[in-house]
Amino acid sequence: MLAVPEITSPDQSAEKRANMREPFLEVIGLRKHYGGVQALKGVDLKVQAGEVHGLVGANGAGKSTVIRILAGVTTLDAGTILLDNKPYVVTDPQHAARLGLSFIHQELNLVPKFSVMQNMALGLPKANTLGLINWRAVQREVKVAADRVGINFPLDVPVGELSVAEQWMVSIGRALVRRARLIAMDEPTASLSEGETRRLFQIIRELASDGISILYVSHRLDEILDLCNGITVFKDGQAVLSTNVAETNKQALVYAIAGRNIATSSYSEASTVSSSPVVLETRGLSRGRSVKNVSFSLHRGEVLGLGGLVGSGRTELARLLFGADRPETGTIYLEGVRWNSDSPDKAVARGIGFVPEERRRQGLVLDQSVSFNINLPTLHTLRFAPFIPLLNHRKADTTAQAISNRLLVKTPSVHTRVGDLSGGNQQKVVIGKWLTRDLKILILDEPSRGVDVGARAEIHKIIRELGANGVSVIVISSEVEELPGLCDRVLVMAEGRIAGELVGQEITKEAIIHISYENTINETGDGNG
Amino acid sequence: MDNRGIPPESAIKDKVLQAPRTVSGKPFVFVAKYGTLIGMFLMLISFSIAAPKFFASVTNLVNIVNQASLTAIIAGGLTMALVVGEMDLSVGYTASLAGVLVTGLIVDQHLPVPVAIAVVILVGGLIGYINSLLVTKLRVNSVIATLGTGSIVVGFNFAYSQGVPIASGVPEAFKNIALGRLMGIPNNIIIMAVVLIILWLILNHSEWGQQIQATGGNIEAARLSGIRVDDIKSLAFIIAGCCAAITGILLASLIGSGTTSAADGYLMASFAAVFLGSATLKDGEFHILGTFIGVLIIQIGFNGMALFGVPTFYQYVFRGSILIIAVGLSTVARRLSKR
Hints:
The complex is a heterodimer. In chain A, 32% of the residues lie in helices and 25% in strands. By secondary structure, chain A is α/β, with parallel strands linked by helices. Chain A folds into 4 domains: 1-100 and 181-261, Rossmann fold (3-Layer(aba) Sandwich), CATH 3.40.50.300; 111-180, no CATH class; 276-351 and 438-529, Rossmann fold, CATH 3.40.50; 366-437, no CATH class. Chain A has a 6-stranded mixed β-sheet with strand order 6-7-8-3-9-10, with helices on both faces. The termini of chain A are far apart. By secondary structure, chain B is an all-alpha fold. Chain B contains 14 helices and 2 strands; from the N terminus they run αααααααββααααααα. Chain B has helices spanning 8-16, 27-50, 58-83, 91-107, 113-136, 142-161, 172-179, 187-205, 207-217, 219-224, 229-255, 266-278, 288-307, 312-337, and strands spanning 181-182, 185-186. Chain B has a two-stranded antiparallel ribbon. Chain B starts with 7 loop residues before the first helix and ends with a helix. In chain B, 48% of the residues are buried.
């Protein structure tokens, strides 16, 4: 039977949904492999019209592969897909769009220089007899969609000038312009604030009540439980749990995702760290509007969190420390000596490692192997002998193997192309790059973004081990749940400044949120547009 | 290291799952990977059958490799530039300048042959370095930058030679470099083998080579891994320039004179060879062995056409088609391997 879950905003949506017994989208026995990795081992999935269906699971469990197949980006090896009870065979993404399926990826695939209007009209065949675009007709259609998602900003501004949340609204609007009947969203709230998230949820619920199905991919289980009607949990390429939201809870989901109980990290004992020597110190560091007069010190073996909202200047600060950008004013002292950090290679030579925010674009050479990537910062240690300029590949592989064993990287071998691994495993490789050398400071920017609960717990464990071994770690995170329990000390940034410092027991989700918002609201007047 | 918490089965399971990895659904990749080799052997066999006495003789086969060796050297250098993710359209003109300069330095400036050669190779490297500065410091697109330097190089060439070939007074010692043999093997082949082996070692077995590959694969990731990407690009361009100079010198030695535009044609041939090679054995990845095979294929084609007296214009058509087919194969191979 089809159980209709309790819906928070009842009205007509419940009865609409109840009328539709036949699933709008049905996936049966889907199989797919990439290289040596079996991504899907026979997956079933049912989505009703007007249902918000959550897809959860560890990275590499198969969620994104299902999405990619539905979008026509990848071909399936075996299995059946039914749309409205008719076989659904797509050859390319445009085809999928014509059949009413829209996909919004994390990267949002918008053209930054195009206006909101142009972006929403992209791919819409609206030409008159002369083959020219009839902008007036397009405008009418776009307006309707824009109103539906509540876009209240001008339609002629370039999308590149909008916030991430606004870009999401544009993407959803674009799906509506294309008359989407199903919209798949991949980690939509990853870069959104709480307020923006609430706004997005409201839009999603309205779309669902209009009969549009939503496939909602997220690692944030609280959101899934709050928003979705049905949930499918993926694990190792299989759908291990298909359930109604009313019949499950967070613990059950976590258990289904991980197949084991994940020890929730608790706060490590009152830190002795502050008494240990200072490794890095900054005084009055500034760059543009993103970093303003930042002074702090980092102790040996300390795990220092950088909290705050997206755009508060944390990534920019990290890039200054690593020499990826240069400060306009201010000084950095490394082990007590003034240090001119002007290029990453100097930082690396001094024992500083950096795990960037976007691992695929900034962290990995995707076409190369796991071993190649892990050994990249330390090639000079891999010579047969100091005077022979040739590399010992066996030594490289042994090192890579040891690192991937230590970090539990799931890969057929160290020779596997890194691009074929799942997100969480890719992230471990990026971290692993820095463990081959004498590391003094490791800076991690959003280390667990897009990473499943299991891998996240493992990454946290690695971070704490590094701290215990005397490595100073800076962790940037937009997820307020992440920093408590992981960090000895947290600096909360707002509007480019350090707005607050929390130590030990003071580090709580509430305190971080409080400081971030308290200090952001005051200055939003001249904030970024 | 021990395993912590994760059931070991998962690792084993993933190992077992490698089994379904087949070439199924990837016939194009197969064709691209081995098609070039098959094509080469088909050409060899059909030419041998058609002209058994001439084509299939040892002399002619050695001749093919001998002729291929100049292209192979310049194409090997170009491979480095392409691996690092840049184009170098100036290599042909650099080779021409090298030929004029080396003969001029010997005949007019009376430099000893080895000194002249060393100077000219340095000049080739300098042109490469200038190319790289335009690309890394001025951030000019490498196609445009090297198109520009290529033309400037032609200008210098004319300024130095006044457009008149330097033919008289070229010493035998210089001519004998390309014409001589060592233990029966033409010197050109030996020089090519040495250059290609060095390039192969650099690219696949040295820090520099790994850094060149990383920079070409993802420049931002390479930079954030502590690689000095600008220096690495310079290195690749310098190697390309030096190799171009070596080819130019050998050509001047072979024809016994320095002629202003003698080596210009190597640009097309080497690009065709490198792209053809990138679709050979690998999925659209530039590599030295592939480049060598690409050069052989082109040379066999030319040799066959010359043997059968095919009109000259067909040779141009052949070279152009090979370039387009090669780039096409390379791109298709790369795209399909990622699906």
